[in-house]
Description:
Oligomer: heterodimer
Order of helices and strands of chain B: EEEEEEEEEEE
Helix content of chain B: under 10%
Structural class of chain A: mainly beta
Largest interface: A-B, 25 and 24 residues
Distance between the termini of chain B: 36 Å
Structural class of chain B: mainly beta
Radius of gyration of chain A: 13 Å
Strand content of chain A: over 45%
Distance between the termini of chain A: 40 Å
Number of helices of chain A: 0
Radius of gyration of chain B: 13 Å
Number of strands of chain B: 11
Order of helices and strands of chain A: EEEEEEEEEEE
Amino acid sequence: QKEVEQNSGPLSVPEGAIASLNCTYSDRGSQSFFWYRQYSGKSPELIMSIYSNGDKEDGRFTAQLNKASQYVSLLIRDSQPSDSATYLCAVNLNRDDKIIFGKGTRLHILP
Amino acid sequence: EPEVTQTPSHQVTQMGQEVILRCVPISNHLYFYWYRQILGQKVEFLVSFYNNEISEKSEIFDDQFSVERPDGSNFTLKIRSTKLEDSAMYFCASTGTALYGYTFGSGTRLTVV
C-alpha cells in the first residue's frame, strides 16, 4: 500500500526563523511531489510542486527532493505567524494517478 | 484566478437520507476528484473521473456512492443512504493534468445525525 508519512507535530518555530518540514513516501516509482497548506476548517492549497531531485525555490519556500532516500522536505524562511497551518505532503505515481496525502504536520509560528 | 466552486458549504442530513454534493470544476480542466477528510484525519481519496467515466475509486467509494457530470460543468457526488460515519468534509478537486497538482474547492461539511 502506498504511504506518505509525516510527523504530525506540532512544530513550533519562532517568528523569523526557518521552519523545516519533512515527508517520506513508500512508492519508489512516484513522480510528482507536492506541498499543500491547510488552514483549520479550510481546503488544501497548493504551495509547491517538485518533480526532480534537488531544490526548488519559490519566494520564502524551498522544496527539496531526494528520490534515492524517498524523502521530500519543505523549508519556510523568515517564518510569519500567517504560516501557522497544517502542511500536507502529497505524492502521485504517474501523470494520470491520484494524489495521496500524508496526515500533515501542524506548524505553529511563535510571535 | 479560476477556482473550483462547491455547494452547499454545510449540509446536515438524517441518517439514511440521500445527499448530493455539487461542484463546478475549473472550466478547462479534464480530471476531477472527490476527497474527504474526517475531522482530525488525513485527506482521503474517494474517486477520480476522466473522460466521462470513473478512472479509479477507493475502498471507501462503495455502492452507496456515485458520481456524475450531468451537463459538462457540474460534477456531483451522491451518497444514497448516509451513515453517521459519512460525516466529514468533502472536497472536490480538478486539474488539467494530475502531474501538476490539483485545485481544491472550499469543501462541503457533511454532518449526518
